[in-house]
Design a protein that fits this description.
mainly alpha, about 90 residues, transmembrane helix, transmembrane, membrane
Length: about 90
């Protein structure tokens, strides 16, 4: 009896493959990890500015802004590519 139920359960799991929830992962990083990293960067920038290292703060800020622009560009290309694939193959 237990073996029959186990076999039925294994057959059910094998019949229904599940993918990775990438949308959930991206949402988790965007809502939890990114704000923490930005707060850490802000604390570092404020600490440097209070010591008088304004040029280093401006350089680091510019690098951070360029990095965010690259991330936004990559996300945009992802959606544009998805749109093009849907357009070509539909």
């Amino acid at each position: 009896m237990i073996a029959t139920e186990l076999a039925a359960h294994v057959a059910t799991l094998a019949a229904e493959p599940k993918g990775i929830n990438t949308q959930g992962i991206v949402t988790f990083f965007a809502s939890n990890i990114a704000p923490i990293l930005l707060a850490v960067l802000g604390v570092i920038f404020i600490g440097r500015a209070s010591r008088g290292e304004i040029s280093k703060v401006l350089t680091s800020s510019a690098i951070a802004i360029v990095g965010l622009a690259f991330i936004a560009g990559a996300a945009t290309l992802f959606f544009v590519g998805d749109y093009l694939i849907d357009l070509i193959f539909s």
